[in-house]
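seq:
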Amino acid sequence: MGTKTIGVREEVYERLKARKREDESFTDLVNRLLDETTTDWREEFGTLDETDADELEQLVADSRKRASSGLSTRQEEALEALSNGDEDDDETA
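struct:
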């Protein structure tokens, strides 16, 4: 199998060297580091522990209640304003 030479900044080299085990080559080190990282962010996307999931669910429910309540109030106020406008039109006619 062939090899490739890559360039890295001095500080990156020092960081890699510090993580390199005594019995491994830089190729082994890079392979190990790549294996330790999740390559597909979607694998972990959307996962919460049960406590966080319950807390989020409660926050969403509370937010929906507040939004619904506010919407109902605004609708009632708009209907009242419209109905008052109709009465004013009837009185002037």
